[in-house]
Amino acid sequence: MATIAVLGAGLGGTIMAYELRDQASKDDRIILINKGSRFSFVPSNPWVAVGWRQRETIEVDLEPACTRRNITLMPQGAERLVPEENRIELLDGTSVSYDYLVIATGPELAFDEIEGFGPGNHTHSICHIDHALAAKQAFDRLVAEPGPVVIGAAQGASCFGPAYEFAFILDKALRDAKVRDRVPMTFITSEPYIGHLGLDGVGDTKGLLESELRNHHIKWITNAKVQRFEIDKVVAEELNEDGSVKTVHEVPSAFTMMLPAFRGVSAVRDIEGLTNPRGFIMVDRHQQNAKYQNVFSVGVCVAIPPMGKTPVPVGVPKTGFMIESMVTATAHNIARLLDGERPNAQGTWNAVCLADFGDGGIAFVAQPQIPPRNVNWSSSGKWVHAAKIGFEKYFLYKIKLGKSEPFYERLALQALGIDKLKSIELEDA
Ligand SMILES: Cc1cc2nc3c(=O)[nH]c(=O)nc-3n(C[C@H](O)[C@H](O)[C@H](O)COP(=O)(O)OP(=O)(O)OC[C@H]3O[C@@H](n4cnc5c(N)ncnc54)[C@H](O)[C@@H]3O)c2cc1C
C-alpha cells in the first residue's frame, strides 16, 4: 500500500488526484492537500471581474467528490515541503508523509517586483477569484466615473492570453454600459510584438490580435518594462531590440490590470535540486524530479525555459490542455513505479488556447511549443466564445463528478481530433 500525495487542488492538482485514483490500486491512499476545500476555475476570472460570473458559479466544493472517490482531502495547506524526509509540514502544525508526491501548487504572483503593483496598491488582478471580485467593484466605479484604462502583462509574465482576453471583455462590458466612448484604452505588454504570447506567435496571432486591437480602438505599447504604477498612471519604458530605452511612457490610468510575473510558492521554494532560482519545480520529460525521484510536478509550477531572448523577459505559458497532458503522463508514470517499472510516458505539452473576447475570440494550437512546428494554427470568430463557455462547463462538471475525463468527453474530443492534443507519448521499453 502506497501513499500518494498531491499538493495543490487547482486545475492540475484536482484532476491529478482523480487520475491517480483511477490508476492506483484500491489499497493505495491518495491525499489531496490544498489551501481550502474549494476548487476555483481560474480561466473564468476575467468574466468575474466584469460581473458576468459570480463566485458560486465557478467554484466547486471538493469534499463530496473526494469522499465518493476515496481521496483524502486536507484543506489545511502546506507550510513547507521536506523532501529528504518524504514529508510535508502543514499550516496547522501537523505533517503528512508520502511515498510519492505530485506538486501542483500553481504560481505565486510576484507583484512585489514592481513598485505600486497589485491589489492593495494601484492595480487590479484577475489571477485569483478574490482579486477578480475586488476588480468588479473597481469596474463598477469605472462605469460610474469613466476614465482611461491600462491592461496588459508585465516584464517576466508568462500568461498573455488572459491579458488580451480581459482587454476585449472589458471593452465589451464598457460598450454594454454605454461608456466605452469615455474610456481610452491602452494595452501595455512585455512581448516583443502583439500576439507573441510567450510562444513567438502561433499561426497569425500577430495579425489577428493587432487587427482586433485596432478594431476595438485599443492602443498598444510592446517591449514594455514597467518602472512603477501610480494611483493615476503607469510609467513604462519601451525598449529597443538591444535593450536600450527607446521612450519612457507615462500613460494615464483610472483602472489598471496587468498580469504579473510568476514564481514558485514559498512552501516549495529554495529546495536544492528541486527548484530553479524562481522556485519552479525542475522535472524531466516524465514530469519527474532528478534528485527526488518520488517527486513529480504538473501545471504552472513546472520550470519551462523561455522560448528565446527578447528585449524584455517573457515566459512560456502553461495552458489547460498542456497541463492535462502533464497530468495523464504523471499518473501513468507513478502507476509504473508502483508496479516496479520505470516511467515511460511524456506529456505532449501542446499549447492550446481559447481566448474569449466577450462576443468572439481567438483560438490557437502550437504543437510542439517551439517553432518550427507540426501544427501552427490560429483562428478567430464567435465560435471561440461558445467554445470557452463549453470548456468551463465541462471542466466544472468533471471536477464535481470526480472524474478526469468522462466517457462522453473522450468521445467528443476524439471526434474533434483534440484527444491527441492532451495525449501522452510512450517510449519503447
Ligand atoms: C486569469 C487566468 C486565466 C487563464 N485562462 C486560461 C484559459 O482560458 N485556458 C487555459 O488553458 N489556461 C488558462 N490559464 C492558465 C492555466 O490554465 C491556469 O493558470 C490554471 O489554473 C493553472 O493550473 P495549476 O493547477 O497549475 O494552478 P492553480 O489552478 O493556480 O492551482 C494551484 C493550487 O495550489 C494551491 N496551493 C498553492 N500553495 C499551496 C500550499 N502552500 N498548500 C496547499 N495548496 C497550495 C492553491 O490554493 C491552488 O488551489 C489562465 C491563467 C490565469 C491566471
Largest sheet: 5 strands, parallel
Measured as a percent range, the helix fraction is 25-40%
Shape annotation: globular
Bound molecules: flavin-adenine dinucleotide
Please tell me how large the radius of gyration is.
21 Å
Poorly predicted segments: none
- Helix tally equals 10
Mean pLDDT: 93
Q: Distance between the terminal alpha carbons, to the nearest Å?
A: 26 Å
List how many beta strands DSSP finds.
24
Strand order of the largest sheet: 5-2-1-9-19
Give the DSSP E fraction (strand runs of 2 or more residues). 25-35%
What structural class do helix, strand and pairing data support? Answer: alpha/beta
Task: Explain how this protein is built.
With 429 residues, this protein is of the alpha/beta class. 28% of the residues lie in helices and 25% in strands. The chain contains 10 helices and 24 strands. It has a 5-stranded parallel beta sheet with strand order 5-2-1-9-19. A hairpin with a 4-residue loop joins β6 and β7. α1 packs parallel to α8. The longest helix has 20 residues. The chain is globular. The two termini are 26 Å apart. The model has no long low-confidence stretch (mean pLDDT 93). Bound molecules: flavin-adenine dinucleotide. Flavin-adenine dinucleotide binds next to α1, α8 and β21.
